[in-house]
Amino acid sequence: MIIPAIDLIGGKVVRLFQGDYAQKTEYSASPQDRFDLYVSEGARYLHLVDLDGARDPAARQLETIASLIKNTPVPVEIGGGIRSRKDVEDLLNIGADRVVIGSCAVKNPTEVKEWFRDYGASHIVLALDINIDPVSGKRFIAVKGWQENSGVTIEDLIADYREAGLRYVLCTDISKDGTLKGTNVALYTDLHREFPDISFIASGGIGSLDDVRNTAQSGAFGVVLGRALLEGKFTVKEALECWPNA
What we know:
Layout: E1 2-9, E2 12-17, E3 20-26, H1 31-40, E4 46-50, H2 51-55, H3 62-70, E5 76-79, H4 85-93, E6 98-101, H5 103-107, H6 109-119, E7 124-132, E8 139-143, E9 148-153, H7 154-161, E10 168-173, H8 185-194, E11 199-203, H9 209-216, E12 222-225, H10 227-230, H11 236-240
């Protein structure tokens, strides 16, 4: 699955470099225009990150997001600072197909597992952003906007959430994010081998169609495409041609 993505600040399409709000690029097209383009090129699923909501859930851009969902004919998943049951309900109530849970999944596993039970695993994605220890090779999940090492490995967290029915994991190698220098194919290959029942969505570093092809061979369920599409490295249509059964 090819999943085009946009990030929003103040209703405008932006990109951050490795999650740093101080390194922000703003794009001229409106979020609706961008979604319309991606759908016209064949996208069947879209990803949106509310960066205002990520910093402060009270600043969540619900009105903008609701309008985008209403006027977009394909399902949309939403992430960005989802930390409470109300956050989940607000987004599902305005039509989000899936909500993307990040740091909260590490910090409050008991509560998040209740959300799996109450709203269904098909409506929840765990976003697990990792730093790989250069000595041990362990893959530790980062929290607090990538500023803090949780001390929990991605493998341990996935194993814990399996009992709750975990289906989707959006996994980002932080060192690759925003670089356009290729994604960590070995990471997704290893995770797919260890957890074949989980649908892994690759994210970070895709800069060329070769990167898309390589990721498709890793066993990943899908790939999120952000900066590469915004900067015209290739189109959604071209990416779809590189992903078997897309």
